[in-house]
Design goal:
With about 80 residues, this protein is mainly α. It is built from five helices and two strands, in the order H-E-E-H-H-H-H.
């Protein structure tokens, strides 16, 4: 008989904290009147708020499948957005 125990308390607590922080971020992002989006380092959208959809008419799936920087962000602002 082999009995093995692994303490996962730290991992579980870290996951809970991460979830709480993500919920707080989403609450803050959706509460402000500005358009908020988050993209990865390649520019692929990972998160958008309802303000994005109201302004662009694109939901997350549509925005991910389009040339977003060319169709939503003014040409004069693209460089600063990428920074």
């Amino acid at each position: 008989i082999l009995n093995m125990t692994i303490d996962v308390t730290t991992h579980v607590l870290s996951q809970r904290e991460l979830q709480q922080r993500e919920e707080l971020f989403r609450l803050l992002a959706t509460s402000i009147p500005q358009m908020v989006w988050m993209s990865d380092k390649n520019g692929s959208l990972e998160f958008i708020t309802e303000k994005w959809t109201d302004y662009t008419g694109q939901d997350l799936a549509a925005a991910q499948n389009s040339n977003t920087s060319g169709s939503v962000i003014h040409v004069d602002d693209v460089a600063s957005v990428w920074e």
